[in-house]
UniProtKB/TrEMBL annotation:
SUPFAM superfamilies: NAD(P)-binding Rossmann-fold domains (SSF51735)
InterPro entries membership: Epimerase_deHydtase, NAD(P)-bd_dom_sf, NAD(P)_dehydrat-like
Keyword Protein transport (UniProt): no
GO molecular function ontology, one term from the record: oxidoreductase activity, acting on the CH-OH group of donors, NAD or NADP as acceptor
Key words, A-Z: Oxidoreductase
Species per Swiss-Prot/TrEMBL record: Corynebacterium doosanense CAU 212 = DSM 45436
Taxonomic lineage from the root: Bacteria, Bacillati, Actinomycetota, Actinomycetes, Mycobacteriales
Record's keyword annotation contains Oxidoreductase: yes
Name by which UniProt lists this protein: Epimerase
Amino acid sequence: MTTSQTILVTGGSGFIAGHFILQFAERGFPIRATICSLAKEQQVRGTLSAAGLPDTADLTFVAADLTDDAGWAEACAGVDTVLHVASPVMPGHVKNEDDVITPAREGTLRVLRAAIGAGLRRVVLTSAFHAIGFGHPRGITRFTDDMWSPLNGPGMDAYGRSKVLAERAAWDFAAETGLELTSMCPVAVMGPIMGRSITGSNQMILGMLTGKMPVIANVAVPTIDVGDVAAAHVAAINTPEAAGKRFLLSDGQDAIPLREISALLRSRFGDAAAKAPTRALPDWLVKALARVVPPMREIAPDLGRVKQPSNERAREVLGFDPRPAREAVTDAAASRIDAGLTR
């Protein structure tokens, strides 16, 4: 299968964007990807090739950074659809929230302005579950596509606020300009690694396997396979009805408690997962540490809470049919073990 529809993927060196590139290449789409510097092109190509990029892939790179206007006009020229995946920072505590929020919001608007300037009408934005399912009162466990995380709710960190503000800015921009926007809000994304760089949700799995996470908290993580996230984006581009809609991407099941993830790793991988934690911090200790330790402050509101992210809209509109999240967890672990990253 080949297609003349050229796709721009921002943040082309990232884990999620890399899997997007693979899926679009397998389907014959010409792809242009942004990276911060063309000096990284051969490294990124090598990583993608090792992960299965077809030799026949029509893939080009352009240098563009979310913090600078340079390169974005060139990046958008001649493409048909933009997949804005790039994110300036991953979850974690930061001293100055503006260092996270400003580049996320302004970077998103920079990409959208370049798209409009190039005459494009369609952008698919990769947002996150952080923009939907965090900061809510404990009694709320069911989450749907049109919900928004309250900016100052319990457990909201700079990353979560950046996702809310960047996505809201994108929707405001679309309303003002007539841009056909689709936003995708995946829960924690896991799956086979590319190269040796581990980021985001995948760090948790590696921490369990290596013993760097010796104990766990009484929290549950909603999880989705990276391949399913990529497939949903492919579907969004090919589905006119997806324009103007927001999609929560999950496997449709309850979030997985960390204790179950750890037990799954030990059961599936035996000696290779012998360091996976068996001890849990008591809730009272997490709450006490939350007064002085920012990461504990962010998870304390979710102690004992099992979130239920819906995927009904994605199933109905996109034909979304994800794998069970536990398979994404084991695939993520297997790729780290096979790569020798756990030794």
